[in-house]
């Protein structure tokens, strides 16, 4: 599976600090046997996030993972960016990520992580903390292959 990884962070995009979330997701994705075909670091900006998602989808990334911008700070706009270009949101992904994360930290209730279909790609917005992003990806891992097939309009048995 071709995967794109987008780190959403003002400071990382400006080089103020090293991106740790993107590399953590890349390692996890490769561990699942996926090919990371595209990577980007963008600021917390609706249009830049949307542009990166659309670009990765056009490049053939069946799965696009974002890390960052899913909290409640003023600049956290990743969910709004994805909702602005999605065909359909898949609420169960966000619900499961929050439910399982709540077992690890009480702050999980603040997360606005989500999943949606954009064009023919499954987009999953994950937390900005590297371990949180990797954990949340693992929580929804079982549903990803089937969801990607549906997003890409591949006939399935259900």
From TrEMBL:
<feature type="domain" description="MoaB/Mog">
    <location>
        <begin position="4"/>
        <end position="147"/>
    </location>
</feature>
<comment type="function">
    <text>Catalyzes the adenylation of molybdopterin as part of the biosynthesis of the molybdenum-cofactor.</text>
</comment>
<protein>
    <recommendedName>
        <fullName>Molybdopterin adenylyltransferase</fullName>
        <ecNumber>2.7.7.75</ecNumber>
    </recommendedName>
</protein>
<dbReference type="InterPro" id="IPR001453">
    <property type="entry name" value="MoaB/Mog_dom"/>
</dbReference>
<dbReference type="InterPro" id="IPR008284">
    <property type="entry name" value="MoCF_biosynth_CS"/>
</dbReference>
<keyword id="KW-0501">Molybdenum cofactor biosynthesis</keyword>
<dbReference type="InterPro" id="IPR036425">
    <property type="entry name" value="MoaB/Mog-like_dom_sf"/>
</dbReference>
<dbReference type="Pfam" id="PF00994">
    <property type="entry name" value="MoCF_biosynth"/>
</dbReference>
<comment type="pathway">
    <text>Cofactor biosynthesis; molybdopterin biosynthesis.</text>
</comment>
<dbReference type="InterPro" id="IPR051920">
    <property type="entry name" value="MPT_Adenylyltrnsfr/MoaC-Rel"/>
</dbReference>
